[in-house]
Design brief:
The protein is mainly beta. It folds into three domains: about 110 residues, Immunoglobulins (Immunoglobulin-like); about 475 residues, no CATH class; about 80 residues, Sandwich (Immunoglobulin-like), CATH 2.60.40.2550. It has two helices and 38 strands. The strands form eight sheets. Strands 25, 26, 27, 28, 29, 30 and 31 form a seven-stranded antiparallel sheet that branches. A hairpin with a 2-residue loop joins strand 8 and strand 9. The chain starts with a helix and ends with a strand.
Length: about 725
């Protein structure tokens, strides 16, 4: 206790009117009813998460970016506590008040690295192994030892492969978040290494009247090249030759440029759309989630016009009524002549040119979310081009991940849509159009609150259209992107859409009776309910187990009354209550038992009957049954003595052995007499001290050898007295 007493002396000298009367007053001598334990537990950020450390945030401008990004530079295995990154400061754009430090929160997520089948047939692009792609976790920072390392407070749950583009996202830790009307949070677009994610942790509530927008921030659409042959290629699913097809969309298997088996051709790599084959077929739409069985890559034919059923069925009997999860297929190749699309099938020589062959890019595949992974929307495949009129394919939607203890309310919208490519450059857009991007991902994880009022969009982007009005020539329109993925704790009744993107169209007069010209729609994504058991944090982390509705410190009869209320609790063992004179060093006031796991509100209180003079600080720490804890922001409290009577604030221990510790409050300077009497009124000991107004601490050592019951009387020079019954051991 020597160190604790030294700290107390500093506090006494600087912040109160206490003084050393006989010996240094030891609060540790008083516990229980008359005994107050001093315990300098100043909890370090190294050992504990700091939810709310970035304070309350109000967004007032459009497209504000609040995350910072870096990437993993070497593999990280499950169980490790140190990761290597390009830059550990995670504040390159000054979006935080300081560089990454202990108590901050990061999201580690592997974006790519899936293995696909590379055979040049209908199996091309099947996902043979997700590997570590889509794995993620939120991790607390213990320290930042150097410019390229981060040490975590708990070991990693997952393993990560740096070659799979693992990004490390710094997550702001707000107490409350408000996004005003007209304002928005956005993010850096995915650049092949990092970006595409908005990740937030909010202790209390989110009021969303503006928007969170990650539209088109996901995997990139295929780029345009200007090489094509005539007659075109009608067989190849993948190739390294840009003459034979357009570029594929980016996916969980990597960007098209990294596909060693060939970046071009109509085969769809995982959730990326396939590029249109030569000559001038259109690109397929990217994808994200959806039903994972029944994929064909041919999308969903639009039969909103009954005549189109006839046109679709010219491909194959009954095709008009077929469906496929994932992205939509791109439209047909170049045709030169005017004919009837309701009677002349694709590939018929009457069409001339490249005979309007059915070799548009296949739609991207739906991804499997059943194992708890998350993904961005896949990029659309590009349209085959040689006349410099086609436009790049659509990017997929990004990821929005909100960890919220309270409620998400408001009239705003979360956007994670795939991109619709621009139409070919008209009026002579004589190239294949490009595919739309797949919808993105939105996750909102509550611990007790709910989401209501807002709307969410994670739609696939529509396919690009052809603007060609000068001739009877026609090319394919782009396939629509597949829908995204939305998951919310206790799924609310709000407006959520994960629709697939519509197919593009051609305005060529030669296909006026069938304007999709072979392009199909993307399929819808998924909307699911997250269970409370879902935990996105790394090993040993509690998922913000207590929702604190309020915490106040008020003066009550010259005491400090602490009152707080929880909205819900998960595995809450107890609350530790602490006090500090400077907001840095804290002493323990005691513990209050928690309510375990409950979704009902609970109120708690604790009285500090010896508050410090001047301004002091009180804080709560919630402790789980497994020892994990969370410290809430402190509350200031200002106290001044207004009493006109002498008051015994604390004394103990009782029974005592050799000495008594007392804390006495005096309304003015006076002389204090302390006297000890036997139970029958015989005085056996006394001492006299000069004291000052305020609170003074004493250690008394009565000269008493016999065990028994005694009375201690404290008297002032003004005749005021207090009588306390004591037991001598």
């Amino acid at each position: 206790m020597r160190k604790a007493r030294k700290k107390l002396r500093i506090r006494v000298t600087q912040k109160t009117s206490y003084k050393k009367v006989i010996l240094t007053f030891s609060i540790a001598a008083i516990v229980g009813a008359c005994f107050f334990m001093f315990n300098n537990l100043g909890i370090s950020e190294n050992a504990n998460a700091n939810p709310g450390k970035d304070g309350s945030k109000t967004i007032t401008t459009a497209n504000q970016i609040v995350n910072e990004f870096t990437n993993l530079t070497s593999n990280a295995s499950a169980g490790t506590t140190t990761i290597s990154v390009s830059s550990s400061s995670l504040n390159a754009n000054s979006r935080f008040s300081s560089s990454l430090a202990a108590g901050d929160l990061i999201l580690i997520i592997q974006m790519q690295g899936a293995s696909i089948t590379t055979t040049d047939n209908s199996s091309y692009g099947n996902i043979s192994n997700y590997n570590n792609c889509g794995k993620y976790e939120y991790a607390k920072v213990a320290s930042v030892p150097n410019g390229t390392s981060i040490t975590l407070a708990n070991s990693l749950v997952n393993s990560y492969s740096s070659s799979g583009k693992v990004q490390v996202v710094r997550v702001p830790r707000y107490t409350d978040l408000t996004i005003n009307v007209g304002a928005s949070i956005s993010t850096d677009a995915w650049d092949g290494t990092k970006g595409g994610i908005v990740a937030l942790e909010v202790v209390n509530d989110v009021v969303l009247n503006g928007s969170i927008n990650v539209n088109y921030k996901g995997f990139r659409g295929g780029s345009i090249e200007q090489n094509s042959v005539l007659p075109g290629n009608i067989t190849t699913r993948r190739t390294t030759d840009s003459n034979k097809g357009a570029e594929k969309g980016e996916s969980i298997a990597g960007p098209a440029s990294a596909l060693s088996n060939g970046r071009y051709g109509r085969g769809a790599p995982a959730n990326g759309g396939g590029g249109g084959n030569a000559h001038n077929a259109a690109g397929g739409g990217g994808s994200n989630s959806g039903v994972t069985t029944g994929y064909t890559g041919t999308g969903n034919p639009d039969i909103s016009n009954v005549n189109w059923i006839t046109a679709w069925n010219l491909e194959s009997s009954g095709f008009a009524l077929t469906t496929s999860p994932g992205g939509g297929r791109g439209g047909y190749t170049y045709s030169q002549n005017t004919s009837n699309p309701l009677t002349k099938a694709p590939g018929h020589s009457d069409w001339g040119g490249d005979n309007r062959n059915n070799v548009g890019g296949f739609g991207g595949r739906p991804l499997d979310y059943s194992t708890g992974r998350i993904f961005m929307g896949g990029g659309g495949g590009a349209g085959d081009s040689n006349n410099s009129t086609s436009q790049p394919a659509g990017n997929g939607g990004g990821i929005v991940f909100l960890l919220v203890k309270g409620n998400v309310t408001g009239t705003g919208t979360i956007y994670a849509n795939g991109e619709k490519p621009a139409s070919t450059l008209g009026p002579n857009g004589r190239d294949g159009s490009s595919g739309g991007g797949g919808g993105g991902t939105v996750l909102i994880y509550h611990f007790a609150g709910s989401t209501n009022g807002i709307s969410i969009e994670a739609k696939g982007g529509a396919g690009g259209s052809q603007d060609l009005t000068a001739t009877s020539e026609a090319e394919g329109a782009g396939g629509g992107g597949g829908g995204g993925y939305v998951a919310i704790t206790n799924l609310p009744s709000i407006s959520i859409t994960v629709a697939g993107g519509a197919n593009g169209t051609s305005n060529s007069s030669s296909v006026a009776a069938f304007i999709p010209n072979g392009a199909t729609c993307g399929a819808p994504g998924l909307i699911v309910s997250l269970p409370l058991s879902f935990n996105p944090y790394s090993a040993g982390n509690s998922p913000l187990p207590v929702v604190l509705k309020s915490f106040e410190v008020i003066e009550n009869n010259e005491n400090a009354l602490l009152v707080w209320e929880t909205a819900s609790e998960i595995n809450n063992d107890y609350f530790l209550i602490e006090r500090s004179w400077d907001g840095i060093s804290y002493e323990s006031l005691g513990q209050i038992k928690g309510s375990g796991t409950t979704t009902l509100p609970h109120k708690y209180s604790l009285t500090d009957d010896a508050p410090l003079l001047g301004t002091s600080y009180y804080r709560l720490t919630q402790v789980d049954f497994n020892g994990e804890n969370e410290t809430f922001p402190p509350r200031p409290f200002t106290y001044s003595i207004n009493g006109s009577e002498m008051k015994l604030v604390q004394f103990g221990p009782n029974p005592f052995i050799d000495e008594l510790s007392l804390l006495v409050q005096f309304p003015n300077n006076t002389q204090l007499r302390a006297e000890l009497f036997t139970i029958d009124g015989k005085k056996i000991w006394e001492t006299v001290q000069e004291v000052s107004a305020g609170r003074e601490s004493f250690i008394l050592r009565p000269d008493v050898r016999n065990s028994g019951v005694y009375h201690l009387r404290l008297s002032s020079a003004e005749g005021k007295s207090l009588l306390v019954k004591l037991v001598k051991r």
